[in-house]
Amino acid sequence: MAFSWNLAYDIQQMWAFPFMQHAFEAGTMVAVIAGVMGYFVVLRRSTFVAHAFSEIGFAGAAGAVYVAQALSIAWLTSTDAAAYGMLVGSSLGGTTIAMLSRRSSHRDVYVGIVLAFALGIGLLFLSLYTGYATEAISLLFGEILGIASTDVLRTLLFTIIILGGVGLIYRPLLFSSLDEAVAEAKGLPTLLIGVVFLLLVAIAVSVSVQVTGVLLIFSLMVTPAATAQHLASKPSRVIAISVALALAVTWVGLFVSFYEPYPASFFITAMIFVIYVLVRVFHRRIRTPGEHREDWKDRVLVSTKDYSS
Amino acid sequence: MEAEDLSGGYGTKAVWKDATFSIGRGEFVAIIGPNGAGKTTLFRLLLGLQRPLRGTLRLFGSEPKRGSPRIGYVPQQHVLDDESHIESLELVRLGLSGKRWGFDPFSHEDSKAALDTLAGVGGLELAHRPLAELSGGELQRIFLAEALVSNPDLLLLDEPLSNLDMRRERDLLRLVSEVVRSRDVSALLIAHNINPLLPYLDKVIYIANGKVASGSPAEVFTSETLSNLYEIEVEVLHDSRGNIAIVGIEGHHGDE
Q: Please, what are the domains in chain A?
């Protein structure tokens, strides 16, 4: 398909294909949930967790595909098995990590332990699986142009669950993300909020990988939010900008990939990275460095809390 | 607040025991003691995050319960992301509305209460400044406003003076003292150095060596009281400006 530079015609031409409609529908939903969840992932310094979920979910997907094949479950296609296996795997991983690590600042070690264990299991399932591991490859790099209408419906269901869940815990989640010790003292169930949040991230990651793939999950889950927080200071505005950026790069990435022989996830990651770099450079230039930091050294800036004394 | 034969600690291990003291409304109290003496443990008991190992602790006429709206708390350490550009007003508003579930946008009443509280601590001009760009002294004003916005009757301030230079230390203490008097709240402030606090204090709780001494600064900072506390001979020296130095005799060096 050739690009004509007549944008209206090009879009019309692209839209004639059902697989492109599905890609846009799923991509739009994924961009919204990744933009929203990404804000809290960045705010809670949980980017390693988000990355771990994608790989833990990958192990779950490999396990589910193998089990579906080994038990000859006819009604479960390998694509569906991979999707649900990923969801179950990342949800289990999320709950385990949240329960193991009481405080987010100490989480990295537990994430590493659970991640390594899950990857080992995933490797075992991949070696046991005797078919072509195409689902594994599409999970690693994303296959947005191969999304079926059932995938779109599943994405819609999880989008409703994620946005509903975040809407319900929005303010306590924001409070415990910004000032966990005060939130805990105020009586908020910070452990429960942490578990629910990681479960929602696990679901969001599982849904997002079909667009970006496991290895590029940060492109929608982290970079738009990290960019947006340099452009606004009110959380609701940061989330809105994060979603807008995720949507813009997803739509443009899909559009370009329709006319170019390269994967959509490449265009998405490349565009959002360039935007992030431009925002950082531009933002630094318009702000005078150290403008408000004449007494920077006496800031209270620490990474751990100590209740031992 | 009343404590009687109170013991605090973790698990079954007491960090300090047999504490008996009372604090009335509108009193400014310092909690002093070396690192690891159990000063924050007392705060955790008051916040209802831990239970006493022994003895009784009454707060507003009943046992402390977690999540009391009558307590404003400023923890020792905050985790602030240098990359986060959230404005200060948001944190202060969360002090009022952060417990409410749901996505409702912050109400006009919440914003007004947060701005009024910020004005009360001299931090109105900081309202729309990102937290990541504030100095230590400015941050403490924001944290104080976050604690005060729900109109508490008791303020718990865990080492708010650490990381502040002498001028900002004095400014913050004046502010807390003014808040205590004008709002008629009680304030407990954990600190290492008693001297900057002395002009403002009503009482001192001194925790050391597993024991607790309390009373007015004149009652606590005596050689007799502190010698009993440390179980070694301690001398309390005063300079011409009223500053205190605590000196251990028999080879023990001073704390202050």
A: 14-287 (1.10.3470.10)
Residues of chain B with CATH 3.40.50.300: 1-70+152-256
Do β-strands B154-158 and B71-74 pair in parallel, antiparallel, or remain unpaired? Answer: parallel
Per-residue pLDDT band at A91 (split at 50, 70, 90)? confident
Q: Which of A83-92, A214-223, B216-225 has the highest mean pLDDT?
A: B216-225
Give residues with Cβ within 8 angstroms of A216, minimum separation 6.
Answer: A141, A142, A265, A268, A269
Asked if B82's CB is within 8 angstroms of A233's CB, the reply is no
Residue type at position B256: E
d(CA B100, CA A153): 32
Measure CA of the first residue to CA of the last residue in chain A; give whole Å.
Answer: 69
Span B1-70+152-256: which CATH code? 3.40.50.300
Q: What is the pLDDT of residues B172-209, one digit of tens each?
A: 999 999 999 999 999 999 998 899 999 999 999 999 99
User: Which residue in chain B is spatially nearest to A232 when comparing CA positions?
Assistant: B85
Of B83, B103, B165, the CB nearest to A229: B83
0.90 exceeded by pTM: no
